[in-house]
Structures are given as C-alpha cells and as structure tokens.
Amino acid sequence: MSDGSHRDRSADGAGDDPSPNHPGDPSPNRPGHPSPTHPGDLSADRADQLLLARVSEAAGRARLGRRRATYGAPFTGPGGWGAGAGIARRLLRVGGPAGARARARLDLYERGLTVGGAGRIHVVRYDSTVVRRHRVLSPQGLARAYVLVDVDGERVVLRCGDFGHPEVWGPEIRRAVTDAQLPRALAALAEGARLAFGPVWITREAVGSRGASLRWEQVWRIEVRNGSFAVRAAAGRWQVWGTVASGIPNLCVLQALAEHLAATAPHRPDDDKRN
User: What is the pLDDT of residue 245?
Assistant: First the structure.
C-alpha cells in the first residue's frame, strides 16, 4: 500500500477478493510500491491480505456499497511502514501478534468507510455517523483530526497524519456525510423540528445560539471561518456561534442547511444593497 490513495472500481464491500492480485486492491509488491517486508516478518503480506478480507466482509455486512478509495499509513522512509502498525495500535487500541503487522488502512465506500488495523475494524455509515473536527496531540505537535462515531457507537479518531492525502479523504468524508444526511434534516425542518448542532440550533424560521437568534430573512451571510460557525445579519457584524473547540457535531451538515435556508428565505428588497 502506498502513502497515497488507491481507487477501486472493481468490487463492493460484500464481494471483494482478498487475493493480493485482485484488481483494484493495493499490493505492496506491485511496480511503484516499495516492499515493506523485513527479514523475519514474512507474514506481513499475509496479514494485509487477511485484513483486506475482514474489511470487505465488515463493509458487506454494513451494506456500504462499492469501495471507492483506499488510503494507507504514510511511508516513513528506510526501515519503513513501522508507522502503519503504530497507528493501528493507537487508533484501534489493540496490538497484533508478532510477525503479523497488518498495515492500517482507511477505505472509503459509497455509503460509509472502514478503518482497519492490527486486530479491529471500525465501520462508519455516512447516514448515521456524527463527525466532529478537533485538534489533537500528535508526535509532531497539534494536528487536525476528525472524530467520528461508528455503527457500534464508539469513537474513531482520524488524525490528518494517520493516512496519506488527508486533503483528499477529509473533504470527501465531509461531502459524503452531508449528502447522506441533508435530505433527512431538511424533511425534519419542514415538519417543524428544531435541530441542535452543539451550541447552535436551527428551525425552518430561524438560527440561534444561547440567547441570540436571527430569522433566516435577516441573515445576510454564513461562513465557517477557521472552523468557527459565523453568521452576519444585513448591516450587522459577524457573530461567532460555535467553534471547532466546542466540537460542533456535523458542522458540514449545519453549514449546508444554513446556506440553503438563508438562500431560500424571502429577503427585504433593500437587504442586497447593504454591506
């Protein structure tokens, strides 16, 4: 597995072939993929194959659909791939047997994702998870991270340094969660529900936080600034109603809902003339 993403259009979660020669599955012995196997650790490749089979089985049970991409633990240079086992133990809080170091992997599917490592697989569905953005400690200092909830209700922490190309898989997770949850949230609002996103709440008529609120027709702009949810009324100042530090759940869904409701609200004719 390289340190980048690997696209897979060949199989769904229920039908993956764990063979290392299966089209679309990462193989450490392919041209362009450095071999991570060390003398005395000849079972590493086999451990990867078994992990792939277990990941595919778990994705099939959760009906995640087709695999879209795979991201591996970053290659750490000569002596290599040790980070994969370390990440797996930290992320999944388990240790594999000596000589069977399956490298941690993040697989994105149509309807969810899996995070697999030494002895545990987490399965996350986009339509039911909660995702928060935090900053957490890493060996290099503070790092951006996504904290999700898996199908068993357990927390899964994905630090942006855990897998290659976080600038790709991070936005993709946010987009997929938004696409999966937005229609249901809009339907609930249409029926009169009040939805809470940590310190921020919204209804069909208004958005608010603690003692402040604005009707949608008063909202001029909405932005997520450096992880903060900010609202500005026409001819008013920006009001910050929630931050990454407060752990706003599903900030991506909140932003999409707020932008939709503000854009479709009836505005006064003079609102667009204000700065």
Answer: 57
Q: Look at the block and give the residue holding tokens 């932008």.
A: 259
Between CA 205 and CA 199 the distance in angstroms is: 17
Instruction: Give φ, ψ of 167 to 5 degrees.
Output: -70, -15
**Both structure tokens of 225:** 């600034």
pLDDT tens-place string over residues 56-94: 999 999 999 999 999 998 765 444 444 444 444 444 433
For residues 137 and 156, give the distance between their C-alpha atoms in angstroms, rounded to a whole number.
15
The per-residue pLDDT for range 95-106, each reduced to its tens digit, is: 344 444 568 999
**Which pair of tokens denotes residue 85?**
């086992």
Closest CA to 169 of 148, 194, 191: 148
Residue 71: Cβ-neighbour burial (10 angstroms; 0-12, 13-18, 19+): buried
**231 or 27: which carries more pLDDT confidence?**
231
The Cα-based distances of 261 to 87, 125, 258 in angstroms read 41, 26, 5
Secondary-structure breakdown of the chain: helix, strand, coil percentages, each rounded to the nearest 5: 30, 30, 45
User: How far is the CA of 12 from the CAs of 8, 33, 57, 67, 116, in angstroms?
Assistant: 9, 24, 10, 6, 17
Six-digit token pair at 259? Answer: 């932008």
Query: By the 8 A CB rule, do 122 and 150 touch?
Result: yes
**Distance from the first to the final alpha carbon of the chain:** 51
Sequence-distant (6+) residues with CB within 8 A of 196 are: none
